[in-house]
Amino acid sequence: MNALxxxxxxxxxxxxxxxxxxxxxxxxxxLSTGEKGKMLMNIQDxxxxxxxxxxxxxxxxxxxxxxxxxxxxxIDDAHVDMRSKYEETMAYIGKASPVSIPG
Length: 103
Description:
The protein is an all-alpha fold. Helices cover about 80% and strands about 0% of the residues.
């Protein structure tokens, strides 16, 4: 896989995750203030992840290094952390809401 294909693929994947995180944030907005307070750390983490993701997406659009080795571990670790925060938050939203919150 050449570098440009990798960059485009990574941009598409990050954009999809960004959409998922925005969906979670909209669902969080519908929770009561008390429930939001219990999730404050997750909300902050998700906001940080969104900001970092937006920066990476913009970077991928304008620059694509030929050697991703130094950045690959950082990207992989961030992806694992983001996925766990997403899943944890979605699980909490499900518990906090007596009925399903439409998407």
